[in-house]
Design brief:
5-stranded mixed β-sheet, 2 domains, Nucleotidyltransferase, domain 5, alpha/beta, 10 strands
């Protein structure tokens, strides 16, 4: 089965062809650079850029895969969560294409898509697993059972981890997006990292909170007065910030693995592309004797391969092949919603 995936939830326009839910035939990602000058994503500009690019990106994905539209078996598209206008562009394009070709259309939750990248990394994956989705818009823990039903275990109560990276980088004058910039500064650190607080929210909590850490960074910068901060000190701030974020992420992952008695863990989302975090996660898995799945960096950031993979599995596991075709933009799920 060859699936075309379309992703347009934020500021990446992506199209991908995936075969049988495990072989990536192509994965084209167009990243919108226009937002850098604004220090964050501007929703209206994002939607307009998606509109200009989505058809071109999809055609490029088909060409790179060497697949004609008529050979497609299924089309999968992100329908939630994300920016409303951005989602609508990708969804409308995918639905129109599906109707014109007479192919099934499967809506895929963007965050669930990050979880499904585990199958692209490990086609022989044995469920259940605990998944941490950590990005600019989401920081959540999930449990996927043997039937691929996804349940929410914990989520951020305020800022997502990636959002805290972006906002802290802006306060330090580093620019946007903040994740790679802070990572680069932290890697250059040669002195003791600044010690920032860890919000663990009680010994049993699986939720996250990063707004306090962001405030702590601001307070530290303000305490320095108006003088210039040396590169050495800036690197120590970035290193301390990263350590505070990563320690919380790994501790919550540890708690979730104990609660669920699960030995297979995966981490996806844009923040999971951070090299220092990947090293710490691997060390954690070795110490705890857990199987750790971390997709390649291109599959951590927003991409359509994860949507195509998710669409394949959702279609295969649906007994009646009936899906709800609507677009819903939202960042947080109620506790009772598990998919």
């Amino acid at each position: 089965m060859i699936v075309l995936g379309i992703e347009s939830s934020c500021d990446e326009t992506s199209a991908s062809l995936v075969q049988d839910g495990e072989i990536v035939l192509s994965n084209v990602i167009y990243s919108q650079l226009i937002h850098q000058q604004y220090g964050g994503v501007v929703p209206e500009l994002a939607a307009r850029d998606h509109l200009n690019r989505v058809s071109q990106v999809a055609e490029e994905a088909l060409t790179k895969a060497g697949v004609d539209q008529g050979r497609l078996d299924l089309i999968a598209v992100t329908n939630q969560p994300g920016l409303a206008g951005a989602l609508l562009v990708g969804f409308s394009y995918a639905r129109g294409l599906a109707l014109s070709l007479g192919k099934p259309l499967v809506p895929v939750n963007h965050v669930a898509g990050h979880i499904y990248t585990a199958f692209l990394s490990r086609p022989d994956l044995k469920l259940p697993l605990v998944a941490l989705a950590v990005s600019g818009g989401h920081t959540s823990l999930f449990y996927m059972d043997r039937d691929q039903k996804i349940s929410l275990l914990g989520q951020t109560l305020d800022d997502a981890a990636g959002e805290a990276f972006d906002k802290s980088a802006k306060m330090m004058g580093l620019g946007y997006p903040g994740g790679p910039l802070i990572e680069r500064q932290a890697a250059a650190n040669k002195i003791k990292p600044v010690k920032f607080p860890r919000a663990l929210l009680g010994q049993d909590s699986l939720d996250f909170s990063f707004s306090g850490l962001k405030t702590a960074v601001l307070n530290h910068l303000q305490s320095r007065g108006k003088g210039d901060i040396s590169d050495e000190e800036l690197s120590s701030i970035c290193a301390g910030f990263q350590e505070a974020v990563f320690e919380v992420l790994i501790e919550k992952l540890r708690r979730a693995s104990i609660l669920t008695k699960c030995n297979t863990l995966m981490v996806g989302g844009g923040v999971a592309a951070n090299g220092a975090l990947r090293d710490k996660l691997q060390s954690f898995a070795e110490q705890e004797k857990k199987t750790m799945i971390m997709p390649g960096r291109e599959l951590c950031t927003d991409n359509a391969a994860m949507i195509a993979c998710g669409g394949y599995h959702l279609y295969r596991n649906s007994p009646d092949k009936q899906f709800e075709y609507k677009v819903s933009a939202r960042a947080v799920w109620p506790r009772y919603q598990t998919s």
